[in-house]
Amino acid sequence: MGCKIHTPHFILLLAENSSLRCRLGLTVSRKVGNAVMRNRVKRNVREFFRREQSKFTNVVDFSVVAKRGAADLSHKDIFAELQNALEAKGHLNG
């Protein structure tokens, strides 16, 4: 069973997996910005995943696609947007 969640700056794709742990996939295209900006977005999403993976309700494959404007977000904004989207759909325990 999978789920697709749209936020203003990200598309989140979640799919249950049969392994024992959650996995992360990232797609940040050149539309987001230059290499420095793309790497910063990826670092922040990885850090969110690392901190929050124990709160996932199921073992899932978590794939994030960054949209235009994601590079303009601060660390806190990225965390808040991802957390709010996942909590609203019931995939993350508060």
Automatic annotation (TrEMBL):
NCBIfam families given in the database record: rnpA
One GO location term (cellular component): ribonuclease P complex
PANTHER family listed in its UniProt record: RIBONUCLEASE P PROTEIN COMPONENT (PTHR33992)
Main function: RNaseP catalyzes the removal of the 5'-leader sequence from pre-tRNA to produce the mature 5'-terminus. It can also cleave other RNA substrates such as 4.5S RNA. The protein component plays an auxiliary but essential role in vivo by binding to the 5'-leader sequence and broadening the substrate specificity of the ribozyme.
Family matches, as InterPro entries: Ribosomal_Su5_D2-typ_SF, Ribsml_uS5_D2-typ_fold_subgr, RNase_P, RNase_P_CS
UniProt entry keywords in alphabetical sequence: Endonuclease, Hydrolase, Nuclease, RNA-binding, tRNA processing
Official protein name in the record: Ribonuclease P protein component
Pfam entry (one): Ribonuclease_P
UniProt GO MF annotations: 3'-tRNA processing endoribonuclease activity; ribonuclease P activity; tRNA binding
EC number(s) reported in the record: 3.1.26.5
Taxonomy of the source species: Bacteria, Pseudomonadati, Thermodesulfobacteriota, Desulfuromonadia, Desulfuromonadales
